[in-house]
Amino acid sequence: MEIQLRHRHPPPNQLRRPLSPAVAPRSACLTVNSVLGGRAQELIQSGAVSPIAPKEASSAIESHGYALLDVRPQWEWERARVSGSLHVPLFVEDKDNSPLTLLKKWVHFGYIGLWTGQYFTMMNPGFVEQVEEIVPDKDGKILVACGEGLRSALAASKLHEKGYKNLGWLSGGFNRATDIDFQNVEGTEKLQYATIGGASYIFLKLLTALQSVGNVENK
């Protein structure tokens, strides 16, 4: 199963609620620029799940007691992760090798996997139970994060349904983070590039190399 996030700029009458004053000043108005559907969108719009921008995440964690829950799949987490964060993937690799699944994997590889490096995935059936094992206190504050924001919104919806009430959502995901938003990052890549793989990763490295050459020539 593959989920792609499409971004749009909402009209003024659809601006979302600002962050809680406990996390950011009232003037810091965040908008949910992601196309979310169903329960997840309702929770974020109502404020039941608090949207927190990447630049405010460190403050939420260090000063307001949020635990950072990374719900990206294993391969993205291995490339880059915030030190001290919790990790429970919402989606896991689908290892079923039945004829129908193999056909789906082949189609996925041709249209998505070759370019992005993403595996063919399925919903983690034990997601909530695994979170409950590491965060048994359902009154605890959890900041749910992923690469682009869609998977984490879905994860927050599932956790809210099971009784977690103090939930934050990393709006825009790690892809919107800058190098200074999270000071301690482990792995081989920058946090904002961890979702990139396959052929697109090769193009990214080529572009980065060309930019470096250009910067040197301009000095």
Mean pLDDT: 76
Please mark out the parts with pLDDT under 50 across 5 or more consecutive residues, or reply none: 1-35, 198-204
Q: The biggest beta sheet, please?
A: 5 strands, parallel
Principal-axes geometry comes out as: globular
How many angstroms separate the termini? 47 Å
Sketch the topology as an H/E string, one letter per element.
HEHEHEEEHEHEHEEH
Spatial order of the strands in the main sheet? 1-8-7-2-4
Q: In DSSP terms, counting alpha (H) and pi (I) runs of 4 or more, how many helices?
A: 7
Radius of gyration over C-alpha positions, nearest whole angstrom: 18 Å
Structural class: alpha/beta
Helix content: 25-40%
Strand tally is: 9
Tell me the fraction of residues in β-strands, as a range. 5-15%
How would you describe what is shown here?
- This protein starts with about 35 loop residues before the first helix and ends with a helix.
- With about 220 residues, it is an alpha/beta fold.
- It is built from seven helices and nine strands.
- The strands form three sheets. The protein has a five-stranded parallel sheet with strand order 1-8-7-2-4. Strands 3-9 form a two-stranded antiparallel sheet.
- The chain is about 40% helix and about 15% strand.
- Helix 1 (about 40-45) crosses helix 6 (about 150-160) and helix 4 runs parallel beside helix 7.
Q: In a nutshell, what does this entry contain?
A:
The protein is an alpha/beta fold.
